[in-house]
Specification:
193 residues, mainly alpha, 81% helix, 0% strand
């Protein structure tokens, strides 16, 4: 069942990685048609293809195309898992990224508030990279909105998660760039340097 949907999804991902974006989009459309045809079966497969397709469009700087897919992925996941389930974090983060790219900041903030509730309830069972993505993306939005204290808080949360994990260089760099931007806004040139 999931294999019928999973094959085009995997093919789409591989084509995207190799730069064949038209082929990736076509394969994902086939997977989505298969998932939609199954209606109430293979909900994980439908959720996955919707999520991957939304992320594909986000990566291609096409948030308008990503929005309906991200909204559908959230609706499918919520119906399947419930609104407070750990599995919902990814959907909220994707939708928040779409809303941020569309400059719909109140909606993005709402998505992050929902993600924060999931993080608070299930923090220790959430994948480390998902938690870091949450804290740092939320801090980026807070920086755009000028909420310096929230940026500091997001960076501090990310640093706590990374504290005993030395192999997270990319994430440490992201956190350091955010801190540097915040220091520059506050004209703290020593800290920014």
């Amino acid at each position: 069942d999931c294999g019928q949907v999973g094959a085009p999804a995997t093919l789409g991902a591989l084509k995207s990685i190799t730069g064949d974006f038209a082929g990736a989009e076509a394969a994902m459309r086939v997977g989505l048609r298969l998932a939609d045809a199954r209606n109430d079966t293979a909900l994980d497969a439908r959720r996955g293809i919707l999520q991957n397709f939304a992320t594909f469009y986000l990566d291609r700087a096409q948030p308008v195309d990503a929005l309906p897919l991200a909204e559908r992925a959230l609706a499918v996941a919520e119906a399947h898992y419930g609104p407070e389930a750990v599995a919902m974090l990814r959907e909220h983060l994707t939708l928040a990224a779409v809303h941020t790219d569309l400059a719909r900041y109140p909606e993005a903030r709402r998505d992050y508030v929902r993600a924060a509730a999931i993080d608070a309830a299930h923090g220790s069972s959430i994948d480390v990279l998902q938690r870091l993505r949450f804290y740092l993306r939320r801090a980026q939005l807070d920086l755009k909105l000028g909420d310096r204290e929230a940026v500091r808080s997001g960076i501090a949360e990310a640093e706590r998660v990374m504290a005993d994990r030395p192999k997270l260089g990319y994430w440490r760099g992201w956190s350091a760039r955010l801190a540097c931007k915040l220091d520059a806004i506050e004209e703290d040139w020593r800290a920014a340097d």
